[in-house]
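Handoff note, outgoing to incoming analyst
You'll be picking up this chain. Sequence as last confirmed:
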Amino acid sequence: MWYWVRDLLAAQGIDLRLGHAKYLKAISYAKTDAVDAATLAQLLRVGLIPEAHMVPAGSRETRDLLRSRLVLVARAVRCHRSIGALLEKYNVSTPEALPELPRLQAALHAEQEALLKTQIRRIEHELRDRVLATPDAQRLVWIPGIGKMVAYTLLLEIDDIHRFPSVRRFHSYCRLVPGANDSGGTRRHQRSRDGNRYLKVAFHHAAVRAIQYFEEIAAEYRRLLRRKGKAIARALIRSSRPSSMRS
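Most recent structure output, in case you need it:
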């Protein structure tokens, strides 16, 4: 909802802050608008409101279109897996070998998948015309493992790299480091759900492609795999360049 509110208030010269809903815990239990407004005003006065980044108006619609593509991709994958589940259920290798009604189910899933793929291609065509020709996108696609969709995601989700005060903050925002669960002087790492999930997916895809198609990165991955295991090795590839490439 904040898009139109921001545009309305910014035009009036009002300093608008977007609070981070997840981290804004210190809200009164008396859930009335008046109490909430007073509490937020006090928190803002003492600088205790964790702020969320507001994407510029010129990038919002393009970023949202890119995110909608990921939703369509997930739906297409579910359709494909549903067909596979029917084949497994009836122990056949093709949809044509299914009984009548399950065959109809498979046909409907296949039609949905075909429609979704057509819509995905429409989105990719629109994004290519708007984003690919930019100088930043052209630089990104030359990096091993980064294709067009990953480049678009990095550009539109990061927005301005200078908003991160350090590399560590950037890694944390991209979910490239594990979360911490400290208690009684003991530190336990756990999967973090904080940060930008779209950037996590993008860096994961980039790491997989780089391992598949670039031998130098694949060699570093195999070295890490022997010492750290699959999950940590892939995470290290996502968050840094191989040591043999740093020179």
